[in-house]
Amino acid sequence: RQMEVFQDYWNQHRDLICLVAKIVLAAVFIALVIVACIIDLHRALGLLVFTLLAIFFYFWDRLVERYGSWMWEASSPIRCLLSRNWFWMRCVLYASLLVLTVLWLVLDTAKQGTRQIVSFFGLLLFVLLMLVFSKHPFHWSWQALISGTLLQFLIALLIFRTSSGASAVEWIAQKVEILFGFTDVGSKFIFGKKYIDHPFAFKVMPVLLFLSSIVSVLYYVGFMPWLICKIGYAMQIVMGTTSVESVVAAGTIFLGQTESLILVRPYISKLTLSEIHALITVGLAGISGTMFAAYIALGVKAEHVLTSTVMSAPASLAIAKTFWPETETSSVKDESGIKIPVDDNTNVFEAASRGATSAVGLVVTIVVNLMVFISLMTFLDSILSWFGSLFDCPQLSFALIFSYVFRPLAFMMGVSWEDSGLVAELIGTKTFLNELLAYQKMSKLIKLRKAGGPEYVDNVKQYISAHSEMIATYALCGFSNFASMGIAFGSMSNFAPDRQADIASCGFRALIAGSVSCFMTACIAGVLYVPEVHCAHFLSTHFNNSVVTNSSQLIHCCTQLYTSVTVNDPWNITISNGFSESSLRQCCLLTPAAQFNCSLI
What we know:
The protein is built from 27 helices and 4 strands.
């Protein structure tokens, strides 16, 4: 009898009880955050930032849900004013951006060097090629092209040229690497202590299973669909693309090309050719979260992969709408929001389990394909070597062919001419095989550079510079290869069998557009990236030159040198961080510092 009374009371007041429970839990959580900040603010800064963001978006969603229509109506006079003068405002905005970009580039080049000029002209070249070879010339979407490129610049500028942006990305990258490191515990338990003897199979691949499980849990709790919709809505407003295109572009930041298509599965059969081309392009230009883990496990810098993943989303839409502009009337243009399929898992544990098991097929596919591709490449290289030996050219191989065919592209992205041959080989490997094999080759180059061995052996370059590695990381970060093009065709054909011929007609152009999107991202990174300078080496090299010039870098390094000096007693000093006393003397002659008494040396 008491159970029935309790059941009736629960049914009548369920919503109120749940609301009170949520309020109590939220209050307890906020109290814990406050206590953590009081104990150590620096240590709890990440938790505080995420809490404030969650609170902001929660109240923003409630505000829009309740007053959104009223706010839209209230802003109608402003919208009408903007629409009447939008043409002239847009012309002034574009002209101002062009002038400011050129002016900034000239001033920044005078400070940083001329290499970034090559990357900038490479960016212009890729955009020009897309305009010239467009499917429908003079129907380009200038809004998508300019806003997409500008978004790339803003993201890169925030990360490469601001200390807060760089610190944020570095912090996220460190946390991601720590997260992936927990996979080693499971690998060690299953495969034993010697699992590291086979790193690719027993260290890299388990990371894919672990991350797939985490993504599935985030999808189940609703965070992943919410985040994708927010980013997609922002891209739709800024770039003028349809909601379907924007949601898929946002989805490729976190999901794979097939998973992101599932988000808009009911709409695929109604898309125009331009929209189909855009969906394939964004899938080929991006990567999945699971592959993100694999690249990092190979030794590629996490912050570069993370930045490239975010930058490629607007770039792919910009290039897709330029290379195949919209000439038809879209039937999904007026869709106010995409209804993302609901997760059918019953609890968190089922979501975690199904997420891990769903990635088993991906792991098997990667392992089998890599094994076959490497064997096949070795076999074909032996045939090419035999054929070349008939003409006294036994070194003929795919690597050699790639190094010549793609070398101009690598150079235009900002890679030095000496390194462009090796980077071109990586681009060819990525395009004709897959990006994971290309990253595996690049990881060997990274290890050779860090080992400090000879740069040339028998006039053959052994590794590339850190700057070239950075550009190559961005250029390779995408699924734009023939195998992935086939996967995209199969996935979309399965979702919309009646559009199979249309999907096939977009495939090759989408592959080119996806590749160019990655190259554009690499160009922008080349323009804005400032390589880390080791001041001890810089000062010793600079002062050994016959002509010593004053510069901002010299002042920065001398200041760093002064802070590394410890004065034990007068005329008895200790210099740390690899600096020399001769560099200290030269710095005192050129840029005497207030915080150090140069008369002590």
